[in-house]
Amino acid sequence: MADHVDLVLGQWGAQRPDLDVTPMAVIGRLSRVSRLVGNELGKTFAAHGLDSASFDVLATLRRSGPEHRLTPAELMRAAMVTSGAITQRLDRLQARGLVTRTPSESDGRVVHVSLTEEGLALVDRTLPDHLATENRVLAGLSGADLGALAGLLRDLLESLGDTVPEELVPGRGEPAGRGFPGGGAGIPDGTPAEGSENEFCESPAEDYRAPSVGAEYAGHGRAGGPAGGRPKVVDEEMLARARELRAQGVPVAEIATRLTIRTGKNAGRPPSVASLYRALAE
Questions:
Q1: Domain of life, per the record (predicted)?
Q2: How far apart are CA 5 and CA 7, in angstroms?
Q3: 193 and 274 assigned to the same domain
Q4: pLDDT in tens, 118-131
Q5: In which order are the strands placed within the sheet that holds 111-115?
Q6: What's the domain count of the chain?
Q7: Exposed (0-12), middle (13-18) or buried (19+): which is 167, by Cβ within 10 Å?
Q8: How much is the mean pLDDT over the chain?
Q9: pLDDT per position as a tens digit, 62-74
Q10: Which distant-in-sequence residues (6+ apart) come within 8 Å of 256 by Cβ?
Q11: Same domain, 194 and 92
Q12: d(CA 132, CA 126)
């Protein structure tokens, strides 16, 4: 059995045998999975009179504590879109009576966006079907496979700087749906950090400024952006060894297999290739 990406890799292997197209095996499949899964989720949202963008806003408000309230700026950072895009979403949702926008009592320059009773009821009706769809599209993988995949994807996101401090994650370390890490989309108690991740994290619009999100949720300084700076898993000794091997012409992917993380939850494992590339690019 082969998939479309196997075909693409075979074609590149025949046309450009001088290139290592191994990354396409991962990136190509991530792209295709995202599109296929997005289509299935979209059908579920449409059955409830929503689209993915509208559900993003409603779901982000729903899990933002008992008041279900955020500012437009917080929603904008969560959705990684421009202020114009979030304004359009809020206009549509307010016109349907699903959200309200009210001035802050303490600062008239600030507006709060809140779920209405109708909006709360709608997102609560949609969420079980949304989770059922997610379970259906993942049904081809075992619980062990899902756990391994979730862990690998988390490692990839961490290597790209997409992290939050663990103390901000409610219930960290507790089981999460189907017995694999990150498997559930349950609604945590408590208020998330300002600018917390939305349900889908859309691609940034062209005029979106990524460094501001880096300061909000990636755990880096504003100047560094979401992918700036050396990953914390790569210490000075590892970096020196990596540079030595790199100077000898050893590929980065092979260098990663020769190194071992010494501290933290990934201790004893090799660093990811992406994190090593970032460290070497300092």
A1: Bacteria
A2: 5
A3: no
A4: 999 999 999 999 99
A5: 69-70, 111-115, 99-103
A6: 2
A7: exposed
A8: 78
A9: 998 889 999 888 8
A10: 270, 271, 272, 273, 276
A11: yes
A12: 10
